[in-house]
Design goal:
heterodimer; A: 125 residues; mainly beta; seven-stranded mixed beta sheet; 54% strand; B: 111 residues; six-stranded mixed beta sheet; 9 strands; 0% helix
Amino acid sequence: QVQLQASGPGLVKPSETLSLTCDVTGSSISSADYWGWIRQSAGKGLEWIGNIYRSGNTYYTPSLRSRVSMSVDTTKNQLSLRLSSVTAADTATYYCSRSYYNASGLPYRDAFDFGGQGTMVTVSA
Amino acid sequence: QSVLTQPPSVSGAPGQRVTISCTGTSSNIGAGYDVQWYQQIPETAPKLLIYANTNRPSGVLDRFSGSKSDISASLSITGLQAEDEADYYCLSYDSSLGAYVFGTGTKVSVL
């Protein structure tokens, strides 16, 4: 069973860069079609941040595109997220995800498999 | 403000059926993009309930079912149980935004 564990600093100052990592266990990070990040502000809904595909292509939500980057480290089996120039509006729980595979092992591209707990980030001076 | 609109809350008595709607536009659901449904119990990660409009992942009970028509999709829960109390979100792709979008979310309460 694939487990995803997001982690990060917990507290980031305004205007600084948020850096998060997601440790993948139970599967090679190279095996999934794509990996991604979703966030959720307290008491609010879910927001897709973006995906990084096996090809290396990245796709980000328009509102964050100028500030976000994602990468994969195959040697560490780890996914990373960087979000620059953060403000209080970036305070949220951040989840990492991967492309969904059904019980037969067949991929379905448009569903996210969260596979673990998120990490809470607060932006405050 | 999400482009996928859900009712803020629905409720029902134990054993009843509830339905949650997800209304989109011609650039997402109406354009033919599939709809997924997630269940989120507070303080936990969302769990995939339905993918590709009507399909249940292994382990998801058949009390949960999905449908899609025109610019809308629906999630139905039959035989409502106390453990179904959670937030539910739809997910689809929007071609105008070039992004995946979640619905506004619906809180299900069991009376």
